[in-house]
Amino acid sequence: MYQTLLTDLQDGTLVVTINRPDKLNALNKDVIEELGKVVDEIYNNADIKSAILTGSGEKAFVAGADISEFTTLDAAGGSALAKKGQDNVFDKIENSPKPIVAAVNGFALGGGCELAMSCHFRTASENAKFGQPEVNLGLIPGYGGTQRLTQLVGKGKAMELMMTADMIGADEAKTLGLVNHVWPLAELLSKTKEILQKIHTKAPIAISKVISCVNDAAKADSNGFANEVKRFGECFSTEDMREGTTAFLEKRKAIFKGK
Ligand code: COA
Predict the structure, then answer these.
(1) Residue 74 φ/ψ region, left for φ over 0, alpha for ψ in the -120 to 50 degree band, beta for the rest
(2) What is the CB < 6 Å shell around ligand 1?
(3) How far apart (Å, rounded) are the C-alpha atoms in residues 235 and 77?
(4) Distance 107 CA to ligand 1 centre (A)
(5) Main-chain phi, psi angles of 71, to 5 degrees
(6) Cβ density class 47-78: b for 16+ within 10 Å, e for less
(7) How many angstroms separate the first and last alpha carbons of the chain?
(8) What pTM did the predictor assign?
(9) Of all protein residues, whose CA lies closest to atom 18 belonging to ligand 1?
(10) Which residue lies with its CA nearest to atom 45 of ligand 1?
């Protein structure tokens, strides 16, 4: 079904593997196109409760946008490339009502780091390396990196990382808050799936409202506190909220239906 992605749905989690290992899974036009499609699938397929993005092979998550596609672009073409990617992939991942987690299994550079940062949170293998090396190419990040890296690690560190083009390892990424967990590569997917299995036992509508409220915190034009009040109220009209509170009072485990 996909040419550049492998997908595997098990226990409600769709594992999406970007599969161009000979090019360190660099994001060319085909990958961007197919990532947009797979995110639509995540939104629309009721059998999918969550997703993991990872890279093929043991070396790279994604080593960036495909630099070979940059050579013919002018200013308008560069802007169009960034806008299309942000609209169809990166922002759509961030706004997904279902959890999408990046399992970073190696280099996450440039667009790869940006792809990981557009996910709701990140886990990493011990060999993972993160960086925004665009200034080495006379470029800046274009898939949201200047904004999301700043939100995740703070202004000073984001400035330093983007100006020096330095790569950091998994442990430093964890210290900075860029990744939540660091595990041996062999355990990365299974441990990430375990977190998602736990999330699957919670009320899905409430999970989607957590995602949108937390995303509001990073939007300058949004009143996150007011939106939280509204979405908190909306939870009271869900069957799952009745089930969750009743189950607590009856001292039993809640069974949520996503209604
Ligand atoms: N775009 C296009 N091709 C890329 C790529 C990218 N972002 N990153 C790696 N590749 C390709 C290489 O050109 C090479 O292809 P080839 O075998 O046909 O020559 C292949 O992937 C393997 O990469 P290579 O550089 O040989 O591996 P390495 O282990 O020596 O170095 C990196 C790994 C990640 C340090 C290095 O590939 C690199 O710096 N990549 C670019 C990172 C970058 O600037 N990303 C931001 C882009 S905006």
Answers:
(1) beta
(2) 23-24, 26, 63-68, 107, 109-111, 133-134, 136-137, 139
(3) 43
(4) 10
(5) -65, -30
(6) ebbbbbbbbbbeebbbbbbbeeeeeeeeeeee
(7) 31
(8) 0.97
(9) 23
(10) 64
For a substitution probing ligand 1, which of 19, 24, 115, 162 has the most ligand atoms within 8 Å of its CB?
24
| Digit-coded pLDDT (tens) for 110-157 | 999 999 999 999 999 999 999 999 999 999 999 999 999 999 999 999
DSSP element (H, E) containing 97: none
Tell me, in angstroms, the distance from the centre of ligand 1 to residue 28's CA. Answer: 13
**Amino acid letter for position 66:** D
- Tell me how far apart the 2 most distant CA atoms of the chain are, in Å: 65
Bridging pattern class, strands 60-62 and 107-109 = parallel
